[in-house]
Amino acid sequence: MIEIISVIIGFLMILFALMAIESKKMLNSIIFLSITSLLSVVEFVIMKAPDVAITQAVIGSGLMTSLFVFTLMFMKKSGEN
Questions:
Q1: 75-80: long-range contacts, CB 8 A cutoff, minimum separation 24
Q2: What are phi and psi of 61, to 5 degrees?
Q3: pTM for the full model?
Q4: What is the DSSP letter of 25?
């Protein structure tokens, strides 16, 4: 049962990564990358690596997503001048 869930999560990760690449809007790409990162957190928990999962949740999902959003906000502000 765990293997089936792991395969489904892996498939979803590939799907969201492709959606992030093919998305026309930057904000949608950031959201899809964040979802991919969150799915990898679940995958790490399934693989019984909680320390890696916590690190991925903090850095990959939280910090990187906020960094991308702030960068996108600064890009829009500088484009208004």
A1: none
A2: -85, -50
A3: 0.84
A4: S
